[in-house]
Amino acid sequence: MGIKKYKPTTPSKRWITGYTFEEITKSYPEKNLTVTLKKTGGRNVYGRITSRHRGGGHKRKLRIIDFRRDKCDMLASVIAIEYDPNRTSRIALLEYEDKERRYIICPDGLKVGDKVSSGESAEIKVGNAMPLEKIPLGIPIYNIEMKKGSGGSIARSAGSSAVIMAKEKGFAHIRMPSTEIRLISLGCFACIGQVGNIEHEAISIGKAGRSRHMGKRPYSRGVVKNPVDHPMGGGEGKSSGGRHPTTPWGKITKGLKTRKTKHSDKYILRRRG
To answer: Is residue 206 situated within a structural domain?
Structure first.
């Protein structure tokens, strides 16, 4: 997949970059594998805004992705590579031997016509899913389960991958994309390879209108507001705030650790950087 630039016919187009979509082989999703996606505009069940700067955006259909890969010991053919507006990675449409179709996250290097499978007897091959117990050390993996049978929840975004560092006492030592090292049960499934669309991080949005298409509304910095609207507002001329960065409600931000204690903390061997 490549990145394309545009002729600067307008000032904003000078900086925009986009996808060439050369790897996409199908324009419309499978009707049976899509559901309606309801937008919230950042509002909760009481109609109050709990996540600011959300709203608008293009209408989307939610693709049902098979994160569990629980159709074991059956070959599937890749019949299409598709764009998914709900995620940064591409998705692959599989057709199994019994003619059932499912979507999976498309790894880098998977092409139409390739065969993939899942289960303990699967090969060490890009796109295949198997328990961590059967995967050799040092091989890139993605779509990793945290609990057996729960479905992959780690390393699913474009270009992501993790690595098995060691195996002992029923657990695999996994180095996450964040450099965190975590213990995960050897019975959990993971897929071989690295998530595709690696160039995603090099895409430049370029203009405000493109963010609006994605459902992101504009926001103002706190230092340009009045004191009545933000703790960092006010001052004569341009001011940098004069205090540690905070939210509009006075809560310290930019550097304050907000992660709550979780029952899974005991499985973290080394915190991320």
So the answer is: no
Our CA dihedral for 19, 22, 27, 31, rounded to 10 degrees, sits at: -90
| Stated length of the chain | 273
Walk along the chain (273 residues) in steps of 10 and give the mean pLDDT of each run.
90 93 94 95 96 95 96 95 96 96 96 95 95 95 95 96 96 95 96 96 94 96 94 91 92 89 91 83
Kindly report the CATH number assigned to the domain that includes residue 33. 2.40.50.140
Tokens of 190: 């993971």
CA dist 132 and 185 (Å) reads 8
Residue 100 lies in a domain: yes
Residue 241 in domain: no
CA distances from 256 to 71, 90, 244, 249, 261 (A): 43, 34, 11, 15, 15
Full domain range(s) for residue 161: 22-201
State residue 67's pLDDT score. 97
Domains held by the chain: number: 1
Domain presence at residue 66: yes
CA distance 82 to 106: 9
